Amino acid sequence: MGSLFRSEEMTLCQLFLQSEAAYACVSELGELGLVQFRDLNPDVNAFQRKFVNEVRRCDEMERKLRYLEKEIRRDGIPMLEIPGECPEAPQPREMIDLEATFEKLENELREVNQNAEALKRNYLELTELKHILRKTQVFFDEMADPSREEEQVTLLGEEGLMAGGQALKLGFVAGVILRERIPAFERMLWRACRGNVFLRQAEIDTPLEDPSSSDQVYKSVFIIFFQGDQLKTRVKKICEGFRATLYPCPESPADRREMAMGVMTRIEDLNTVLGQTQDHRHRVLVAAAKNIKNWFVKVRKIKAIYHTLNLFNLDVTQKCLIAECWVPALDMETIQLALRRGTERSGSSVPPILNRMETIEDPPTYNRTNKFTSAFQHLIYAYGVATYREVNPAPYTVITFPFLFAVMFGDLGHGAIMAAFGFWMCYKEKPLQAKKIDSEIWNIFFGGRYIILLMGLFSMYTGLIYNDIFSKSLNIFGSSWRNNYDGSTLQSNQLLQLNPDSKDYLQYPYPFGIDPVWQLAEANKIIFMNGYKMKISIIIGVFHMLFGVCLSLWNHLYFKRRISIYVEFIPQILFLSLLFFYMVLLMFIKWTTYGATPGHFGSQDPEIVKTSAFCAPSILITFINMMLFKHDKNTRPQCDDFMFSGQMFIQKLFVIVALLCVPIMLFGKPYFIMREQKQRARQGHQPVEGNAENGTAGGAPVPASGHHDEEITEVFIHQAIHTIEFVLGSVSHTASYLRLWALSLAHAQLAEVAWNMLLRKGLMSNDYQGGIFLYVVFAGWAAISVSILVLMEGLSAFLHTLRLHWVEFQSKFYGGEGYLFQPFSFEIILDSAGQAEE
């Protein structure tokens, strides 16, 4: 329980391990996850450490596994999750077997892929040739048509058709090109050949698979007619530039038919071979998919062990490894047992040695958490990691955080929606975790599921206190007010008010929360709720800050900082109590002193009038006058000038004492430090008080230098900053808690606007058209309620609550200058690796 309210006591230990037992012992410590190793070779390059070759081998194995995983994912083969517990880290000798397995798998897969790629390329070429033979036959058939002779005349001219009494034949090349390159290809041919070529092209309807990237590409067949070798060379160069593939195409139709039949036969044979190759590849990948998760875990564990062993030092004999590590003091026995298990597994006869060390370093901060408290602890860590062994605010935040949120978000309906969402995430926790949803926003919500559940439940409670459910009220116990006006008066006067100093009020309060009659009080509902929520905000804020200052006393007592109790805690608690806690007392005095007197309603008796609401003073004006040492005469002659006898004297005394606390906070600590320095100079050694001021308590380390090494000027500046921050902060922080009132008011008014502008109009509509209208309006109202009033307003209230805890509460006692305990843990390493993959 100590680690919940204060971080674990940590110990720096020195660990001696035999070389043959080091691997097994570190493996056991990794499974345990309770040891943070220090780097004893900070000046040694990463490539010059003892186990760098083993780390490289692990990197190579990881590379091969990633290659296998990529191929498995590409084929859409499911990878089996690890059933039960994760496999243990394999022994060093098993690394050779794993390397051989991965090498064999990689080589086999690469060979299969190369063969498959070569076959696919061959298949692509044959397919393209098949399309060329088909399309060119169509072209030649068209050219054989007598009506097409005009094209030849246009291309060669009438004189060129006959040379030496013989008809000239055109040369041609045929090939395949990407469809999107056709327009540019055609333009280039026209310009380069000056219009002396004839291009025909036809699209291939079905997409073809690119063997390199496995992408589906669309291509077109083309045939280019030309005359002469010079144009032929030019055309081929242009085709090469546009990466068009040229294929041989016979001139005679018989040869083309014969070639087409041969191509079809080869395509069928290739299909058979390709199918067998793909089946073999699939079998190899399915076999690998069954074990790949296990292999990843094993390789990562081996790599983590050797990476940790690189932090160790070798002794002179090269037979023993020496390590330094931070361990929780309560877990020393557990760690000893783990080391013993590791030694037994390795077969070593020499037991490991774990010695405690004295150190002047600040230990890391370690707070044990579970799935419920971890979210609240992370809220604290977001502000800063606690200084070693100082008070941990997380257990108090578990209550105060959802409560302050609920004060701003108080609505039974909206709170129920939020609580239902949080409860669903908690109830479906394991299935949702197993899904591993890759969404940052979802992971934030899921990580804070218990915070959301508590915020929803607390909001339901404050919603009952405010008697607010979707801006409406519940009349559970019956109102404590009665209407004494007749019907005509009610209808003619919209600004009527019920008077508590009459029989309108039954003189007993509504049993729980706000009376539902206020829902009907359009004239002064906001005035009443403003006054109520404003005062409640100040009361909660003052008690919250006083609690923070009291926690600082717990810190001073634990670290035995006696001087800080006298010159920091006592002046701070006096300053807050005499000014702001006194203001809270005035509120309670006003509530209990002034009000209606049963049996004397409307009485003009001076004694009765003095305690009536007519004479109730303003707390804010009273507090301002108190700070200014002045008093305004009551303008109402029937009323007393003061709320109680001796009020003026007590107020002056409180302000004077509070002001006297400021110089004590400002000069107290520097004065005691100067006195200690003089005393030490006379005695020649550091006194016990100096040790206490430096923080020696309950296993806490002694810092290398105390106050005697600090310049007194720096101490003065440091103390002046803290004093000014506290004094001015007390005023601004108290006012800052008014955000509880402001956000609560805004939330209630937004809910009322949404009801009046949407749902109320839908409920007032008649006939069947009204039902359709209500259906549409309800959808809009529900969408606005969830998106704006629950999500956006909820986020706003969450951020304001976070600020109240970080600034107003934690600034009173929380240093947040520590660093986090980061143990060597396989679980953490594997989780972070899994998240990086996703």
UniProtKB/TrEMBL annotation:
Organism field: Bombyx mori (Silk moth)
Primary location group: membrane
Topology class, membrane: Multi-pass membrane protein
Superkingdom of the organism of origin: Eukaryota
Record bears the keyword Transport: yes
Protein name as it appears in the record: V-type proton ATPase subunit a
Compartment(s) where it occurs, according to its Swiss-Prot or TrEMBL record: Membrane
Regions crossing the membrane: 403-427, 448-466, 536-557, 569-589, 649-668, 771-792
One record GO biological process: vacuolar acidification
PANTHER family for this protein: V-TYPE PROTON ATPASE SUBUNIT A (PTHR11629:SF63), VACUOLAR PROTON ATPASES (PTHR11629)
Region Disordered, residue ranges: 683-705
Organism lineage string: Eukaryota, Metazoa, Ecdysozoa, Arthropoda, Hexapoda
GO molecular function: ATPase binding; proton-transporting ATPase activity, rotational mechanism
Coiled-coil portions: 95-129
Summary of the function given for this chain in its UniProt record: Essential component of the vacuolar proton pump (V-ATPase), a multimeric enzyme that catalyzes the translocation of protons across the membranes. Required for assembly and activity of the V-ATPase.
Keywords assigned: Coiled coil, Hydrogen ion transport, Ion transport, Membrane, Transmembrane, Transmembrane helix, Transport
Annotated family: Belongs to the V-ATPase 116 kDa subunit family.
Annotated Gene Ontology cellular component terms: plasma membrane; vacuolar proton-transporting V-type ATPase, V0 domain
